Amino acid sequence: MKLARDTWLIFQRQTQLLLRNPVWIFVGVFQPVMYLLLFAPLLKPALNAPTQAAAYKIFVPGLLVLLAIFGGLFQGFGLIAELRAGVIERSRVTPVSRLALLLGRSLRDVVSLIAQAIIITLLALAFDLRVFIGYLLLAYLMLALIALMTSAVSYGIALKVKSEDALAPLMNTVAQPVLLLSGILLPLTFAPGWLQGVAKWNPFSWAVEGTRALFNGDLGNDRVWQGLGIIAVLAAAGVFWAARQFARSVR
Amino acid sequence: MIETRGLRKSYRSRAGRETKTVDAVRGVDLDVAAGEIFGFLGPNGAGKTTTLRMLATLIEPDGGEAAVAGADLRKDPAEVRRRIGYVAQGGSTWDESSAREELVLQARLYGIGKADAHRRAERALEAFQLVEYADRKCKTYSGGQRRRVEIALGIIHEPKIVFLDEPTTGLDPQSRAHMWDEIRRLRTEGMTVFITTHYLDEADALCDRIAIMDHGEVVAEGTPAELKREISGEVVIVGLDAPSTPRAAELLDTEAYVSKLETVDEGGLRLYVDEGATAIPQVLRRLDHAGLDLRSIELHRPSLDDVFLTKTGRSLRES
Question: Do B88 and A86 touch (CB under 8 A)?
Answer without folding.
Answer: yes
